[in-house]
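Cross-check.
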Amino acid sequence: MTNSFSTEQTATATGGRRIAVRVSGPDDGLPVLFCHVAPGSRHFDPDPEATAAAGVRLITLDRPGYGGSDRLTEGSSPTIPLYADDCAAVLDQLGVRAAAVTGWSAGGRVALALAARRPDLVRSVAVIGTPAPDEEVAWIGADEKAMIAGLAADPDSALANLEQMLAPMTADPSAMIGMVGSSPADEAALADPELRADLEAMLTEAFGQGSAGLAADLVSYTLTPWGFDPRAVGAPVRCWYGAADAVVSPAHGQWWVDQVADGTLTVLPEAGHLLVRPVWSEVLRWNAASS
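Predicted model, tokenized:
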């Protein structure tokens, strides 16, 4: 294998918008595209030791407004298909013919949308703790639904209003870890100082532009149509969910499995939403076997 260091790169989306990209691992390793959680950034490897041992070429990118990626221009609407098209642009510009694609939580929607829109680029899809549509498997709380309804009353200003609402929350990235894992099982997982440090680094980068990325992410799956049909995903899909996840139960994974042509659900009995680290080596093994 060759060239096993990490590099920071920039790709270009339609219209010239910059996408911040990190690539690590050997150039001839299996390309693995990882779509981050919300909030999140390219500065997160689910398990660096497992990634190195697998010899894969890990590709991560910031969605618009996170980290080093340009925020969306005024008048642009954040959508899951737009995020999927950014992933396609990155793979195309890196010269990757096909990748094993993984998405954690909000990133799972992006991974599946990429597989639906650009099947030529996707060998397999690993979905980790990704919510189904709320109307199919309820998970959004009453207070959040009330906030969404208020934002929907003025859709033209929704993104700017939400960004303003979220701004005070992003001042201390370490305090935002609860947004990516808040169950008792997640508290136990955070006893691992390396995982906590890695998540804090991810969130520090995520909020480099304030709340722009998080606001756009939330709008993309609460105020705009999801814009893709999971039944169009032909690549093999495997879903990993934690039985102790307080928000995204395995019922969400079963919904995704029921939609796609070739889907399998794996449930970890004692895991919460932070299951991404304990399952990562298994995800990589499955990706390799499916490719």
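The radius of gyration is 17 Å. The chain has ten helices and eight strands. Passed to J.P. for a second look.
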